[in-house]
């Protein structure tokens, strides 16, 4: 697995970037949002990556922000959504807006993505609605997109907690905790205490 690629930005085009490091140039597929936020050519850059292997293809998908990578990986968990389609969806709007739309069950924004029709957008919302957490606080939406939180959510739901209670407990998890087990324990403590 390749977690990230760091080096000089050699080339940036709509759809991919080339990062030069250690004498090699890595072609990394990117969303429109990542493209817009890349530094100038020749500057240092770090992209967090998703390493995708298929029978006939090995590809790297890169993101400047971890939350965009997390949403990309959540989209890949939806049946029928591959990496190119997931990138098209991420290019339709910023991560916060997409996450909010999914959490609220709104398909219009997702349908603006190239190649996404109404049925596919509805499937995305149906499969991810409970995995994308939008918690209201001080009048603004705070989007939590930690991949492990979907596992924490599933575990707490299987213990019989209500969805709203689970989301509230997850919103209070110490952000320094990274493992699913630690996050689950912390959520249980916060929900009981």
From TrEMBL:
This is Holliday junction branch migration complex subunit RuvA. Coiled coil: none annotated. The lineage of its organism: Bacteria, Candidatus Colwelliibacteriota. One of its GO terms (cellular component) is Holliday junction helicase complex. The RuvA-RuvB-RuvC complex processes Holliday junction (HJ) DNA during genetic recombination and DNA repair, while the RuvA-RuvB complex plays an important role in the rescue of blocked DNA replication forks via replication fork reversal (RFR). RuvA specifically binds to HJ cruciform DNA, conferring on it an open structure. The RuvB hexamer acts as an ATP-dependent pump, pulling dsDNA into and through the RuvAB complex. HJ branch migration allows RuvC to scan DNA until it finds its consensus sequence, where it cleaves and resolves the cruciform DNA. The keyword DNA damage applies. InterPro entries: DNA_helicase_Holl-junc_RuvA_I, Hlx-hairpin-Hlx_DNA-bd_motif, NA-bd_OB-fold, RuvA, RuvA_2-like, RuvA_C, RuvA_C_sf. Residues 1-64 are annotated as: Domain I.
